[in-house]
Structure formats: structure tokens, C-alpha cells
Amino acid sequence: MSDTSPPQPSAHYSRLAKLFHWGFVGLFAYGVAKQIDDLDQLADSDLLRFEVVFAGVFVLLLGVRFAYMKRTQTSALPATTPPVQKLAARIVHGAMYVSLAGIALSGLLIGLVFWLGFEDGWLIQGVVGLHELFVLASYWFIGIHIVAACYHRFLRDGVWHAMVPFWQDGHTSHKDH
Ligand code: HEM
Ligand code: HEM
Known about the structure:
Elements: H1 15-33, H2 45-72, H3 83-115, H4 122-155, H5 159-163
Bound molecules: protoporphyrin IX containing FE (2 copies).
């Protein structure tokens, strides 16, 4: 691998970091697109197994990504960034990890509770409620994250450039998110 050099402040992310970032955008979009619409669907044991395997792989890869990012990469925020803004970025990034992990773990819990025979009632309704709360939280934090990324694109401070492969230079056109 060519990504063994130590992280530098505002250096571009490694290829693996970008692969994790954009791979998860795809994985998350896929997970949301094929979401379960109704609890009754879990009676289909093939679907239940698929969901559980998907959520297990998702949370495992998320853990690997988190460990890798924490150990080897640093934010592309310029050194002159005010501490409060650095803290805000850390909170939003952390909240995205927590909500994505929360979706998968609460999904696994739904699977377990259903498999144990609690196919209806307050227990499974409660866990589904928790699952939906994590989904809602993830939408909010991802939304804030994308707005912040676009803001940095307009600042032209290198943050957008460090992670996003498109709309790299040239015009200062309108906001499209
Ligand atoms: C499912 C959607 C997304 C999630 C969950 C997500 C999550 C993250 C996380 C956790 C980081 C911190 C680095 C890391 O630990 O990997 C990050 C960095 C970044 N993301 Fe995203 N992201 C998403 C979509 C996007 C999109 C659509 C854009 C741009 C349009 C974007 C732009 C950026 C940029 C510019 C950084 C670098 C920030 C910095 O260096 O401080 N992300 N993203
Ligand atoms: C990473 C994996 C997963 C993703 C991304 C995901 C995503 C979603 C989304 C977006 C919703 C709709 C939430 C809403 O409408 O507010 C949902 C609902 C639901 N999910 Fe998941 N899910 C995952 C894993 C699982 C697993 C493993 C199970 C169970 C085995 C599961 C069972 C359900 C159920 C029962 C609902 C509620 C359906 C209803 O409204 O009755 N999910 N999920």
C-alpha cells in the first residue's frame, strides 16, 4: 500500500480513506433504498437473514473505518480554523458514526427480538422506534455535513478538495445542495 506516510495537517486523505468515505455513501444509500417497510416482512426468513448479514457487515466495516481514520488521518481543516469550528466538525463527524452504528445495531436487535418470537408488542415496537430515531438523526447530521462541505467549497480552503473528487476548481457558481 502506498498510504503508509504519517498524516500531515491539511494533507489530502489517503485512497483508502476516500474509498471508505464514498463506499459508505453507497452502502448507506443502498441500505436506505432497500429498507424494510413493514415488520411483517421479517417473517420471510431469507429477508431476515439478508438484513442481519448486511447490518453485521455494515457495522463491522464502520468499526474498521473508524479505527483506520482515527489512527492514520487528520481533518483537512486549515490550522487557522477557530477551535469552536473544529469542535463542531468533530461533533458532527462523531454523531454520524454513532447514528450509522446505531441504525445497524438497533436493526440487529430488531432481528434478534423478532427471531426470539416477540413478533408484536411493546418490546419490538420500542426497538423499531429506536431504529427509526437513529435513521432520523443520521439524515439530520448527514444533511448538516453536506451543507458544511459545500460551505468549505465556497471558502476554497482545501477541505472540499481533500475528500470530494468532483467540482474541484474553476467557477464559484451557485449552491446546489
Ligand atoms: C452518507 C453520507 C456521508 C457520511 C456518513 C459522511 C461521513 C463523513 C465522515 C465521518 C467524515 C470524517 C472523516 C471520516 O471519519 O471518514 C467525512 C469527511 C468529509 N466528508 Fe463526508 N459523509 C457523507 C457524505 C458526504 C458528501 C455527499 C460530501 C460532499 C458533497 C462529503 C464531504 C466530506 C468532506 C469534504 C470531508 C472532509 C472533512 C474534513 O477534512 O474535516 N461527505 N464525511
Ligand atoms: C445498516 C442496516 C440498515 C439500514 C441502513 C436500515 C434502514 C432503515 C430505514 C431507512 C428505515 C425507515 C425508517 C423510517 O421510516 O423512519 C428502516 C425501518 C425498519 N428497519 Fe431497518 N435498516 C437496517 C437494518 C435493519 C435490520 C437488520 C432489521 C431487522 C432485521 C431492520 C428492520 C427494520 C424495521 C422492522 C423497520 C420499520 C418498518 C416499519 O415502519 O414498520 N433494519 N430501516
